[in-house]
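Checklist before submission:
- one chain only
- standard amino acids only
- sequence pasted in full

Submission:
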Amino acid sequence: MTPDEVITRVIPQQRWRAAAWLAMALVVAAVAAWELQMRRLGLRAGDLDDSRSHWAVERRKVATGEHDGVVIIGSSRILFDTNLDAWEEMSGLRPIQLALPGTNPRPHLKDLAENSDFAGLLVVGVTPDIYFTDWPGIPLFAGLTDFWREESPSSRFGHRVWIELQRRLAFLDDAYRLGTLIDRAVPLPDRPGVRGPIRDVWKLAEVFDDRQTTMWPRLETDEYLRDHARWVWGPFNGEPLVEAADAERIAAESRKHVEMIRARGGEVVFIRAPSAGLYLESERQGQPRARTWDRLLAVTGAYGIHFEDHDTMRDLDVPEWSHLSAASQPKFTRAYVELLMRDVPWLREHVARRAGP
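Returned file contents:
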């Protein structure tokens, strides 16, 4: 071959446009099939995963004053067991929902008392085996007292895009990602007598706008899923056992923050939502009411509602022993809001003011 010779390679003609359309059709078909399968499992579009960003949106409403004066903090029980529409229907006030699954509300009580000018009604849900310990909570929601201030613009934008996608597609549910399903399909057995380190509750709730959270209907009817959730809450052996000294310390800490909010013209109330079965028995052993709930109210001087004290709150449906069913949620909400409106002057006055002359 001489230097003047040029090698010409002939590229076979391909139907690139047809190939692109075929690839697109396969992707659309695969997504559609996966979407249909997820809907058969009980998922639905419009069920929004809870997340740090979702919570931060609501927390910023408190900071900017975009609220009706009522804020709810606590763990998952007050989150699952409160119906925001029922609250608003009864009082004309729509609460900001800041309760977090598996999370101690005391740091958020402290944050609202010490780092805000909040002067409304703070409803604090008390789950005894969380409130009366120093357990920080699940990692997903760690550091939120700073995150809502520091969240980047890209994170806020990404959250908005994700929410809009979830309004239209059911398969985006975080609890039913493909990787998660594979992990469940290939379980690694625990050694005899050893409880595995992964205690994923799978899907427990549906989440909507304003973080309105309701038990996932399938959990109420699927025995396997219900029993799995109960296993996650256990073992039911009265642990953690709350020592009297720790209970007094926690009550005194709560009193300090309650008094700070009251000094600004606000009010704080405590709600003990229903539990049942072995979970309730375990709480009675490990966190005796006289040592925990009763001391909390006595030391803080706050108004409190314990579900066992009221006929309207007993015998509600608690399928997995820790959270109310979708049908019982508004019943419990109406029952406790009725008591708050009757017994808490702050709420009575603000409801009357909202109603006008």
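Reviewer check: The mean pLDDT is 92.
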